Structure formats: structure tokens, C-alpha cells
Amino acid sequence: MKLHDVAVVGATGMVGRTMVKVLEERAFPVNRLILLASERSAGKEIPFHGKPVPVQKLEPEKFKNIEFALFSAGASVSKEFAPHAVRYGAVVIDNSSAFRMDDGVPLVVPEVNRRQIFKHKGIIANPNCSTIQMVVVLKPLHDRFKIKRVVVSTYQSVTGAGNKAVIQLQEELAGRTPREVKFPHRIAFNCLPHIDIFFDDGYTKEEVKMMKETQKIMGEPIKVTATTVRVPVIGGHSESVNIEFEKKASPAEVREILAKTAGVVIQDDPKNNVYPMPINAHEKDDVFVGRIRRDETVTNGINLWIVSDNIRKGAATNAVQIAEVLALGK
Fold it and tell me: What are the sequence ranges of the domains in the chain?
């Protein structure tokens, strides 16, 4: 197999480090790995296949001869440096929100819209973490029953807000006043129905992301409404998803379809207390589904509970999977 020169931008962050880890775990054919971050992080080392790889300062010329550039350093960094990477010939797989809704940029979850990968013009966008785990489940059900409407409420862990958020939760749980705060309110023993900024219509940016990204990935104007909530969990996002279909769908049929879907694991035996939980999704790449039941308030309705590791499938693993498709060329 051909070996490839790969760069990871934002390599010292939570997602960046996981990208490096996933590249190793999945035996991605790496020839040369370049780790890039801010000047403050330059000189740090991250292990890859048992050897320390030094982190370098992010500069345009570092993308020379790079084939795949995995970005996870925020929208402003992506907007500034992704064009440089493309100019040097790299394919950028960007984890930020910078390019997701650009018409000329594919927004990709390989299990859902793999063919879009090859329509790129140098940049491929990684969707929002909560969107990724939901559309992996929605796609095979839409193919069978045709989705009319989705109502989703999320329970998102603090890792989705970065290291500062994790530290705030840990310090609050320990009874200490956090040195820095990420959230506008206490997160320990609390839930915040507030992720990202609020718009004038009352929705948050995170909610709008889920609504618009789902439509772009699925390639159809499916009606989606969302409420996103931050909860005091260290890792793993959970979602309560209500789906209304055009065709009749039984819980048994839904289980059968999802059991055959790549990347999905059914955990649905509530009588024995078996259902997806973020603590069990930690460090796993699958999307877990349970609490599958009929919604009796509409003609063709199903309720689901969906859980996934937001740092892995919700970010790092999805990006590496996109690179794998490109590396294989199919």
C-alpha cells in the first residue's frame, strides 16, 4: 500500500491527539507525520508507533509535500491556513465549522455520503459531533421508511467544549472555585440548555448546526428541530431522537435495519437494564442505539436513544475514515 505524508493541525488539543492515536490504531499508511500547533505548543512531543514526534509551529510552508492535512484547531485557524495547505497540494479534512456549509465543500460522514468525498476541491468538512452520530442512524432508516421530521434533544459532555470545560467540571466537583470558566453557569450537578451563541429566534448555533448539517449530509430537506444541552459528563454525547416517517415502521424493523448498519451497535434490552450510556461508549468508534420504541402520538413515529464518543466518531475517527477513503481511492 502506498504510504502518505500526513499533517495534523492542532495536534496538542484533545481532538488532535486523538487523531494521532486513531491514525496509529487503524494502521493508516503514514510515511511522514507532521504535527503542527501554536508557537506555545511547539517543542512538545506526541508518541506515534512508539516514537516521540515533535510538535512544530504552524506555518504555511510546513504543508509542502503533505498529502492529507487533518485540521482541528478552530475555525479561525482553518480559514487562515487551510488555503495554504491546499495551495501546496494537500487535501484538507477540517474538523471546525469554517467550511461546513460552503456549497463547494463536501460535508461527509463516510457511512452516509461516502461518494461526496471525491467531489472535493481541496477541502472536506467534518460535521459537528452531535450531527455525525445522529445521521449514521438516520440514513438507513430514511432509505427504508422516508423520514418526514426529526425532533432531537442532546445531552452533550463537557469534552465537546475542550480542555478548559473539563477542568471547570473537575474543579467544581472537587469543591474548588475554577481558575478559568468555560460556561456561563456552574456545570457540576447542573444542565445547561446553552451550547454556543444564541440567535434572535431563540435557537443556539449548535442547534442550527444540527438542523442544517443533517440536511446537507442527507442530501434532502428533512425537517429537523433540535435542543442541545450541556451535561456534567466527561465524555460521550447522548441524544433523544424522535423520528416521524412517511411509511409505517415497527421497532422490530428498526432494530433489524440498524443491526445490519456498519458502525452501529444495538443495545436495547431495557428489562435487563441494557441501553446505551456514555460511560460505555468511551474510547469506542461505534454509534450505540437503544430505547427503540413506537411513538403512539403520530401515525409512523419511532423514539431512539443514541450515544457515541464525541471525540472519536464525533471528530477524530470520522476525519481519519475520510482520509482512508481517499487513500484507497474508492
Answer: 4-127+315-328, 130-310
